[in-house]
Design brief:
Elements: H1 19-39, E1 44-49, H2 53-69, E2 72-73, E3 82-87, H3 92-111, E4 116-121, H4 127-136, E5 142-144, H5 152-162, E6 166-168, E7 189-193, E8 195-196, H6 207-211, E9 215-216, H7 219-231, E10 236-240, H8 257-265, E11 272-276, H9 285-293, E12 300-302, H10 310-315, H11 322-335, E13 340-347, H12 354-367, E14 371-376, H13 394-417, E15 423-431, E16 438-443, E17 448-452, E18 461-469, E19 473-478
Helix pairs in contact: 1-2, 1-5, 11-12, 12-13
The chain binds 5'-deoxyadenosine and iron/sulfur cluster.
Length: about 475
């Protein structure tokens, strides 16, 4: 029996959270001990994340719970005894990837009698997906959604106890459970959820349906978490939410995002603050002011434009115009001249004409993004755009996509090169994947620099001379002060 397990094990599960989940962690741990005994070895797990930073953070929470239960992490999915897919459904090809890999996993499971498979995340919030899984993927052991992820230990213990497939999907929730275990991928930086869900209902987007209504964490809970992270050696935090600019509006005692940032800035040990994602319609002057004054908020803003055409923006229900967006960008650049701006753009939204597309190119040329994520519009069942007329033919969309991409890449390369020859502070994140004599560091503006170093430098800040720009990253040398 694992020494860490509490001796006095209660018969009844507590009703209160998070106590209830700690009880089930203990219970699942007892089952796991028996399973390990039967296997004659420790059992391993692998969490595979699809999609955004929000999912990556959720996966850290799953990992924290699994490690508490007593599973050992196995980086290679094919070798793990418990594989968890944390899925994304923002675009259709994300779903296809999951089905493809799941088929492969089913074949591996046949050869490993100890193996279990769990599926969770946004894709599971779609009823058609769960129907399909029930019908054609019998070998899946556990299915849960985004709203009850905090119940992972309880669901797993139920699966272990019953030996049957457990499926638990909630339509929505207003609940936020604090203080569950979590494991960080990096010791020196961490994502911190500040809010969940989204209320914007952009007409193409499935997120409000799968992540539910917007709810903010209490500022005290966020501060407490970041103080703990700082005490644990974290120097960089990424505040996460679908729409961070509307943080705090639904709290009993409303707080603005800018006010939250001011409080986080005061936490000793935290050197860098990032956040994602900002909706242009909610970005306040107060936030621009805080960014301009701050020493700790990074010189990077991700500000999805989606389209440059006011007509399309209206159909997208984005609630800003092309001119409004450009004006906002102008104000941000004036207040924070060295800011790096990135964006998301969708091409081929229903009804998009060549003229609309030219408006998008015009915004790209005017803003000069440091980088842009470009997406081909993907029809998501249940969203208003899915039933709009004038869906744009594939060939036209592909052609626009390619034209947009080359424009974006050309501008990014020019933007990146601007900093060549300067000295900047980099937080070293890892030894370089391809060349062990180099380390990879991240600059405040989110660009990467590779420079000579070793593993002892990971997690520390260094001044680096940016010798050469290679399109979207730098080669540098350590600056001796
Ligand atoms: N089709 C294509 N791209 C989409 N995004 C969201 N929904 C869709 C869709 N249906 C993009 C948006 C968003 C990013 C996370 O994904 O650009 O900002
Ligand atoms: Fe989707 Fe719009 Fe919410 Fe972003 S803001 S998650 S694009 S609905």
């Amino acid at each position: 029996m694992n020494e860490n397990r509490i001796n006095a094990f209660m018969d009844e599960a507590p009703v209160q959270e998070p106590e209830r989940q700690y009880y089930y962690i203990e219970k699942a741990g007892r089952y796991l001990d028996k399973m390990c005994e039967a296997a004659g070895r420790p059992l391993t797990f692998c969490v595979t994340t699809f999609g955004c930073q929000m999912n990556a953070r959720d996966s850290e929470k799953l990992t924290g719970i699994l490690e508490r239960i007593g599973y050992v992490e196995e980086p290679e999915e094919e070798k793990a005894d418990f594989v968890i897919y944390n899925t994304c459904t923002v675009r259709e090809n994300a779903n296809q990837r999951v089905y493809g890999r799941l088929g492969q996993l089913g074949r591996i499971k046949k050869k490993n009698p100890h193996m279990m498979i769990a599926l969770c995340g946004c894709m599971m919030q779609e009823p058609e997906v769960v129907e399909k899984l029930k019908k054609s993927y019998h070998f899946v052991d556990l299915i849960f959604g985004t709203h009850n992820i905090y119940k992972f230990a309880e669901l797993l213990a139920t699966r272990m106890e019953s030996g049957r497939t457990v499926i638990d999907i909630w339509k929505d929730t207003d609940k936020i459970v604090e203080d569950l275990p979590s494991e960080r991928k990096y010791p020196f930086k961490s994502g911190v959820n500040i809010m969940f869900g989204c209320n914007n209902f952009c007409s193409y987007c499935i997120v409000p349906y799968v992540r539910g209504r917007e709810r903010s964490r209490e500022p005290e809970a966020i501060i407490r978490e970041i103080e703990r992270l700082a005490a644990d050696g974290v120097t960089e935090v990424m505040l996460l939410g679908q729409n961070v600019n509307s943080y705090g509006k639904t709290l009993e005692h409303p707080v603005t995002f800018a006010q939250l940032l001011r409080r986080i800035e005061k936490i000793d040990g935290i050197e860098r603050i990032r956040f994602m994602t900002s909706h242009p319609k909610d970005l306040s002057d107060e936030l621009i002011e805080v960014m301009a004054e701050s020493e700790k908020i990074c010189r990077h803003l991700h500000l999805p434009v989606q389209s440059g055409s006011t007509r399309i923006l209206e159909k997208m229900n984005r609630r800003y115009t092309k001119e409004g967006y450009l004006d906002l960008v102008g104000r941000i650049k004036k207040a924070v001249p060295d800011i790096s701006l990135t964006t998301d753009i969708i091409v081929g939204f229903p009804g998009e004409t060549e003229e609309d597309f030219q408006e998008t190119l015009d915004v790209v040329r005017k803003v000069r993004y440091d980088s842009a994520f470009t997406f081909i519009y993907s029809k998501r069942t249940g969203t208003p755009a899915a039933v709009m007329e004038d869906q744009v033919p594939d060939e036209i969309v592909k052609d626009r996509f390619n034209r947009l991409l080359s424009e974006v890449q050309e501008i990014s390369a020019e933007r990146c090169a601007v900093h060549t020859g300067t000295v900047q502070t980099a937080l070293v994140e890892s030894v370089n994947d391809h060349d062990e004599s180099l380390v990879t560091g991240r600059l405040s503006n989110n660009l990467l620099v590779h420079f000579p170093g070793d593993a002892s430098m990971i997690g520390k800040f260094f001044r680096v001379y940016l010798k050469e720009c290679r399109g979207f990253y730098y080669i540098g040398t350590l600056q001796k002060e």
